[in-house]
Write a structure and sequence with these properties.
The chain is α/β, with parallel strands linked by helices. The protein has 16 helices and 21 strands. It has a 10-stranded mixed sheet, with helices on both faces. It has a 6-stranded mixed sheet with strand order 16-17-21-18-19-20, with helices on both faces. Strands 3-2-1-4-5 form a 5-stranded parallel sheet, with helices on both faces. The N and C termini lie far apart (52 Å).
Amino acid sequence: MSEKSRVTYFLGIGGIGMSALAHIVLEKGGEVRGIDRNGSQITRQLEEKGATIFIGDEAPIGAGANVVYSSSIAQSHPAMQMAKQLNCRLFHRSEFLNKLMESQLPILVTGSHGKTSTTALLTWVLMHAGFDPSYAVGGILIDTGKNGGHGRGKYFVAEADESDGSFLNYNGHFGIITNVDQEHLNYWKTEELLRDGCRKFASHLENLFWCADDASLSALKLNGQSYGTCEDAHWRLFDVCHDKMNLIFSISHNGHQFERIRLSMVGKHQALNATAVWGLAHELGVPEDKIRQAFLTFGGVHRRLEKKGEVRGIVVYDDYAHHPTEIAAILTALKQANPGCYIRAIFQAHKYTRTRDCLHLFSSAFQSANTVFISEIYAAGEQPIEGISGRTLSSVIPGSSFMSDYEILENLKVNSRPGDVIVTIGAGNITQLGPKILNVL
């Protein structure tokens, strides 16, 4: 499609999914306008690149424009109503992403957990190897400072969102499924329907990499190449260890061993994600030395165990984890990478529905933390559910304390000691607490 031919309006342009596509349209020479209820670093960056952004729910949409919306935008939204009256071309975000990918070969990454880190790492590997891919990622790459970009190479790397079923709108040249877990059941209703959705997604891919360590994926008996620690995986991960905040691991494939691969991330879950990226990059013809160099230089993704700073020997991290499986993984990774350290975890649950659906799973998610603080739930636009609150969540997590942000800061100020690791966890505004913690330490 020609993005230069008409103006493209993004509803909720400050969102991580929308802004990625806005970056691409701008870099292809198109005119971008958008609305968002709040300004942010993301909207300011887009404005600096030439986008016109209106704060609020209304914008002067022109007749015949492209209007891109996400599943979170109600059909009754004033901008949607105006777009319909003006006979604008309406695109769900997934439909517009499909249009952007038309002239390149899509490489799609999905899964309940790890898809952003995996997509970002794969993007960086292809960039480092000179493949110049386009990309749309659900997080900001520290190496590029953005979450989307237009490349002139043959590949388009995109995170495929399973949360609203929109990943079924894509067809891919290559793809990765990292795992399937009890997540986004407000849309899927049952785990069986979610697994069936993943099976259908897999059928849309010409070449698939899937994690054999995941029981749900293994049960689907998918075609393609498997990866994992199990003996029969096509790409077998072994000898995983940490060197401080770095991973060292090896991979075997068809009788060949790729030994002592180093990656600037932590956690066995990231080693698994990296194994998928290694295998796929190998299939695309990326030389081994280029993959190794890219793994060494990968800067990571904002809000994925991102180091916010260090004061008096106390290190503060921030992570986007919001599902119990993710929380357990990042806390275990921190413990393994920092043996003997005292971990202070601060968690803000994301959405009342997820808290309700996963309440029983949260009880064991924080076992690698020494101290756990729970703040109030981040609603993310949802209405409260009776009997579900931050205090409710704290009651099922052994040894945790429900506190306000002020109380958490005061506690950390008094009790934190050199050598401690503090981590803020959650997909909401808990990320804003990190700088405040550094100020009080």
